[in-house]
Amino acid sequence: MDIIELKKRLTEALSEKILELAQLGKGRVLSVWVEAKHINEVALLLRNESYLGFSVLENFFVAQLDSAFLLSYYLRAPKTGMELILRASIVPPNPEGLAKAPSIREVWPMAEHQERESAELFGIIFYLGLSPADKKEIKHSFLPPGWQGFPFRKEYKFPESFSGIQHQRDGL
Amino acid sequence: MESSIYDSTLGRVLRWARYSSFWYISVGGGCCADEPLHTVGCRYDLERFGCVPQSEPRQVDLLIVNGVITYKAAPYLRAFYDQMLAPKYVMSIGSCANCGGPFSSDISYSVVPGINKIIPVDVYVPGCPPRPEAIMNGLLSLQEKIRGHHRTEKKIN
Fold first, then answer.
1. Percentage of residues in chain A having pLDDT higher than 70
2. Smallest Cα–Cα separation from A56: which of A31, A29, A36, A74?
3. What CATH number corresponds to the domain at position B95?
4. What CA–CA distance (Å, rounded) separates B20 from A150?
């Protein structure tokens, strides 16, 4: 299966949900933008349909573009060797607030670790099911307990001190 | 010898025993953790100064801290230091442990800018990472400090 055929099949299968379908650079990788609320349906379809068969999630990352968070899922179909990048964006309600995105860990269980890391460092709640639960805090497993703020956000300011240790070099 | 007080022969014997049998433990937080291993290896042979690596903090006199210490690791390092029995000495190896180094306070949010904010330090060995000769030099200056020569405290002018 080549990239033109994959493009055709994706357009047939996901016609309404696709925001943008484009080739990434000069490589043979397609990038599909969908709305964040549809990401679970699209993920299930990409994994389960035998003619697509994207059963492996190779990588998942979050990047911040201005105020929006870009979620990128790097997929691979082992049988055909095709690659695909699934993308969605979410916007937090205010610069300090928590953003909410649907979790895909039921489709690709490998995403759980990456989601936990992104949740802690970017301040995103990944929820299961249709609507976000009333979750106000994120459990810390990378940062020390009691840490305030989300360090990977662009507007993050360094703490002046943490647990009694001044965050400044002596003699400066 | 200006600031030292002359104590009896027993004190000199005790100090001689302490500085010529450093049992140490190394806390590695980064790539500098390789350097004490080279220093104790066959080429530089730290054992001729009486240094023996140990695996329990309760049995050591010297704590060697090398590499990045983050805010998450800081309470564990403090607990580690508190387990050691007095008299205890601390040597800080590498720029990260000395002052934050390349992860200084205006670049990194998570690295403690200098382990002297957590535990008292006797000798700093600069370098990124320091060579084994530099670590041996740090050890010799710590020996001199215990002996009462205070090479490390000598004023430059």
1. 94
2. A74
3. 3.40.50.12280
4. 49
Alpha carbons A14 and B100: distance in angstroms, whole number: 51
For A101-123, the pLDDT digits (tens) are 898 888 899 888 899 999 999 98
pLDDT above 80 for B129: yes
Q: Nearest-CA distance from B149 to chain A in Å? A: 26
Copy the structure tokens of residue B94: 């590498």
Residues of B in contact with A151 (CB under 8 A): 109-110
pLDDT of residue A50: 79
| Cβ neighbourhood burial of A94 (10 Å; 0-12, 13-18, 19+) | exposed
pLDDT at B112: 92
Contact assignment for A158 to B109 by CB distance below 8 Å: yes
Average per-residue pLDDT for chain A = 86
Question: Is the reported ipTM for this assembly greater than 0.85?
Answer: no
Q: Name the amino acid, one letter, at B103.
A: F
> Does position B81 have pLDDT exceeding 90, yes or no?
yes
Residue of A nearest to B110 (CA): A143
Instruction: Report, in this order, helix, strand and coil percent for chain B, each rounded to 5.
Output: 45, 15, 40
Q: In sequence order, what are the beta bridge partners of B92?
A: B65, B124
Q: Which CATH entry fits the domain spanning A3-152: 3.30.428.10, 3.90.1150.10, 3.30.540.10, 3.30.460.80? A: 3.30.460.80
Q: Do B113 and A167 touch (CB under 8 A)?
A: yes
Tell me the two tokens of residue A25. Answer: 């650079």
- The residue count of chain B comes to 157
Contacts of A15 (CB under 8 A, 6+ apart): none
Give the distance from CA A30 to its chain's centroid.
17
Counting the structural domains of chain B, the total is 1
Find the domain containing B44 and state its range. 15-148
Contacts of B74 in chain A (CB under 8 A): 163, 165
